[in-house]
Amino acid sequence: MKAEFSVINLTAWYTQKKPVLQELTFHLQKHEVVGMIGLNGAGKTTLLNCLCGLHDGFQAESVKWNGQEIRFRDPAFMFLRYAVFDGDSPFGYFTFREYLAYVFRTYKKQIPDIETLIRGFSFEQYENVLIKELSTGNKKKVYLITAFALHPDLLFLDEPVNGLDFQSTEFLYSQMKEYKQYGTLFFSSHVLESVSLTADRILLLKNGSIEELCDKTWKENGDIREVLGHV
Ligand SMILES: Nc1ncnc2c1ncn2[C@@H]1O[C@H](COP(=O)(O)OP(=O)(O)OP(=O)(O)O)[C@@H](O)[C@H]1O
């Protein structure tokens, strides 16, 4: 199968003598959900920052979307993707509804019916409250609901479960699992359950590079702890 998004030999650094990511290569297929796990400091956020054009200290042999060479900051590529970063709450001076309208205008899309998302995330009371006045979990929901309403071809989520209550977490898992209907979801998580319950493939970020968990027993029993014991 032809990879939709491929990154070949990406090296990223904060200080050039000590790269955080080293000649890392991975491919994301069209319509799949891919989870990325790794220890604290492994470089998950740095990788997502690179993919979103937020980190300048990197070089890559090749980055391709649909077979075409691209740069992370290419405007056409920017509007194919949307990302939710952990702890990042942009546009605090907008309400959720204002932010949603802004994003959809920017991406040149029509806002769909989002009642299922609003109910699923128990967000009914917060649609018209300033984002900066929301609790941590409700702030997170602003961007998650926007992401799942927008359905970009490439959706990046950094630690999506952080800050959510158990009900919203269950709903989030259902949305993540179903995302392959709309596009490709690539997310990082420390919550092993969130990866084993939703992902088609799991990538492990370790020592600056990525390897795939080839032992798929986690798919049958939903538990990747045993597989992780061998890597
Ligand atoms: N702004 C920065 N300046 C210098 N070093 C940084 C900076 N941000 C991250 N690092 C370093 O880069 C490495 C990777 O960090 P990163 O945040 O990408 O890891 P992570 O896998 O997302 O970690 P965690 O699971 O703790 O969120 C770490 O060694 C970290 O200390």
UniProtKB/TrEMBL annotation:
Transmembrane regions: none
Annotated keywords: ATP-binding, Nucleotide-binding, Transport
Protein name (record): ABC transporter ATP-binding protein
Keyword check for Flavoprotein: no
Ranges for domain ABC transporter: 5-231
Matching PANTHER family: ABC TRANSPORTER ATP-BINDING PROTEIN ALBC-RELATED
Superkingdom, taxonomy of origin: Bacteria
InterPro entries: AAA+_ATPase, ABC_transporter-like_ATP-bd, ABC_Transporter_VariousFunc, P-loop_NTPase
UniProt key word Lipoprotein: no
Upper lineage: Bacteria, Bacillati, Bacillota, Clostridia, Lachnospirales
GO molecular function, one term: ATP binding
